[in-house]
Records
---
Amino acid sequence: MRTNVVIDDDLMKSALEASGIGTKKGAIEEGLKLLVQLKGQKRLKDFRGKLKWSGNLDEMRSDK
């Protein structure tokens, strides 16, 4: 998808330096991937204590 955005120059410079990514496009894509990943992790955390699990951890942990 092609788009035009205005991004703070200092923020972009910091992102490029911190990430080691060589292009603005690469930095933006990496940032978007990270945003999607973090939001996905938050959705998983919302299930904490709400799912039922049955099994035997001791049995699963054995090297059989």
---
Amino acid sequence: MKERLQWLDAMRGFTMILVVAYHVAQMTFGINEKSSSSLPFLVLFRMPLFFFVSGFLAYKADFLWNWPNALRLTWKKVKIQVLPALVFLCVFIVLRKTQFCNTFLYAMKSPTKCGYWFTWVLLHMFVIYYMACLLQQWVNGKWLKAHCQFHHAVIWLLWLLSLFVYETLYLPKQFTYTQDLFFRYSSLIKTMNFLPFFLFGNLAHRYWDKVQKVADSSWFFPLLTIVAFVSCADIFRWHTLQFQWTNLPRTVAIYSLLMMVVIFFRHYQSWFTQEHPVGRGLQYIGVRTLDIYLLHFILLPQLPAVGVWFNQNRPNFILEITASVSLALLVIAFCLLASHLLRISPVFRQYLFGRK
């Protein structure tokens, strides 16, 4: 797909707002997620949607997959995904924590890395994806020259395998490897938690013409809405499935909500162009998600009194969302201001944000 999809950049900006809003509600306000009316819902699709977009953009139809190109791409991602996160993690610890060495060691051992897990996990996904593309190229050249319908078979198999692994994360008694220290320290637990959505986005791009036809059909969106509603009702109200099937409605809900957001942004794509103020603003955020992600943890204020009020006066879905998103937009504005200030230096621009 040669033409850049403006609504996709806008959707990424929308997702970044949700990410910051979630952290505002959780870290700034201190809203209890178990009693919150908005956080459990937002957590269902905000990060899956982010990885969906990353996987979508990772597919390059005309890219020549060979070892030199794959290694070049991998090294480029290492420079962008690892060094900036380490630098900003250290800055975050210095400014927001008390003991640097102990906190840094704790972060390195934690799957979440004090919040800076995203870029590291995304690097895992890119490496896995690049290996799969190399394997697909080899398989296509070896056996599938006359079978075009199987040209994406490796990615399909990897997606199905990732779904199986994803489900095992919620069965710790049956699959004890999830408690292994290596999986925790390396954040591979997080990788397995979101890889299915990265690969789903990649497959959606590979079959984009067919996906659009299905999305435009008269029956798909109503069916998707019903499935999402029933799945969310089971997660938050009914709890009909137990034991090993408990995660099934959650998985269905995530994919349904994710696709509903994608269809919404694509259907109203005229709102999200550079000519529309809403689209211009969301795109501006969408193309600077790395900057915002790295900076926003440092700039989050502390307002626990707000969380106390929400925890005592629940449920308040609209009020929680309004308060969280409003402050998130303010935090994002300061992140962008700090980003522009740092980008004055070519050294910071290249090594902190991966831009020459």
---
Amino acid sequence: MKAIKFCVYKESPHYVAQCLNVDVSSFGDSVEDAISNLKEAVELYFEDAPEGAYQPVEEVLVGESTIHG
């Protein structure tokens, strides 16, 4: 068993769930669907993932800022 950390954001009309431990994401019509689909996608990813693909994430911070551009 591996603990995964993820973020979920709205990208109309769907919710996107992005895993922070590996570069895998998924989406769904609701937050719950997106998370469920992400868990399935990550499990499938680990079936063929190279050794050391999992990166532990200890702390997650979310921020927002503005930039020029």
